[in-house]
């Protein structure tokens, strides 16, 4: 059996000196949900850059309240509280920015390439390695706070029968044991860069960058699930980060929901 991949919080604090996270790391061996922890802290006035992470979640969740299996020591379970100076109309860009940050960190630490499936799935090849859950509170047309929750399968070597064909982990894909500590540090650093760049008018737009790294954004036949359910071929992202899907009845701008590869025939 490999030795436990334990977090060294003091070493993380030292590595993150000078970032927005300095002095704001909150680790729990076990918690119900890091997103719930971050939201509760936000309502109490916790500052921008507060980080809540755990070795195990008892009630981890993804989009649509789907359960996220969060066994002790197997994955990276982290939520970051952000208070960006951002108009509420730009909020849909945040999950995409988080996805870019995660993909960059995984490539840097594990050496594998992540595909982003709009709006929040992290894939390696056809299998899901992680997901993102962004929850926000708006006030008077501006974003009051955002909780960016990230779950990544790291050390899993096998999955339950209902997930075996569709899930993977970093250890499996990288063919080596990936350090959760190094991954978390890299993720937080890349997330700070992405969030600070959201308000930079000179920066390349988030939709354009996602289109460059995702195989799902253009030319993929998909089924859209949710209130705008339809089937068609993806045709890019609009300026807000919404997905464009060309259907038999015309172009649909998908603002919410999820996508899967459409059945052929």
The number of domains: 2
CATH class value of the largest domain: Alpha Beta
Global morphology:
globular
Q: Average pLDDT, to the nearest integer?
A: 92
How big is the Rg? 18 Å
Structural class: alpha+beta
The side-by-side strand order for the widest beta sheet comes to 1-2-3-7-6-5-4
Percent in helix: 10-25%
The strand count comes to 12
- At the fourth CATH level, what is the homologous superfamily of the largest domain? Bira Bifunctional Protein, Domain 2
Q: What profile does the largest beta sheet have?
A: 7 strands, mixed
Terminus-to-terminus distance: 46 Å
- Report the β-strand fraction as a percent range: 25-35%
Order of helix and strand elements from N to C terminus:
HEHEEHEEEEHHHEEEEE
Poorly predicted parts: none
Assembly state (oligomeric): single chain
Description:
The protein is α+β, with helices and mostly antiparallel strands and 265 residues long. It has two domains: 9-209, BirA Bifunctional Protein, domain 2, CATH 3.30.930.10; 216-261, SH3 type barrels (Roll). Helix content is 25%, strand content 32%. Strands 1-2-3-7-6-5-4 form a seven-stranded mixed sheet, sandwiched between helices. Strands 11-10-9-8-12 form a five-stranded antiparallel sheet. β1 (25-31), α2 (34-43) and β2 (50-57) form a beta-alpha-beta unit.
């Amino acid at each position: 059996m490999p030795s436990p991949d334990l977090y060294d919080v003091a070493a993380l604090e030292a590595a993150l000196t000078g970032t927005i996270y300095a002095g704001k790391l909150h680790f729990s061996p076990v918690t119900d949900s890091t997103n719930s922890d971050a939201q509760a802290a936000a309502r109490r006035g916790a500052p921008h850059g507060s980080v809540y992470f755990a070795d195990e979640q008892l009630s981890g969740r993804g989009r649509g309240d789907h359960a996220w299996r969060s066994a002790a020591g197997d994955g990276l379970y982290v939520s970051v509280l952000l208070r960006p100076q951002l108009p509420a109309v730009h909020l849909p860009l945040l999950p995409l920015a988080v996805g870019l940050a995660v993909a960059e960190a995984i490539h840097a630490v594990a050496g594998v390439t992540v595909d982003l499936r709009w709006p929040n799935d992290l894939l390696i090849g056809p299998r899901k390695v992680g997901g993102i859950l962004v929850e926000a509170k708006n006030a008077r047309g501006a974003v009051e706070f955002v909780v960016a929750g990230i779950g990544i399968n790291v050390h899993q070597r096998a999955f339950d029968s209902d997930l075996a064909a569709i899930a993977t982990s970093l250890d499996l894909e990288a063919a080596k044991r990936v350090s959760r500590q190094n991954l978390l540090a890299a993720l937080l650093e890349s997330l700070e860069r992405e969030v600070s760049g959201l308000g930079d008018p000179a920066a390349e737009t988030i939709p354009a960058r996602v289109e460059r790294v995702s195989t799902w954004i253009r030319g993929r036949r998909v089924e859209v699930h949710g209130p705008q359910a339809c089937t068609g071929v993806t045709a890019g992202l609009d300026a807000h980060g919404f997905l464009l899907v060309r259907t038999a009845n015309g172009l649909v701008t998908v603002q919410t929901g999820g996508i899967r590869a459409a059945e052929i025939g």
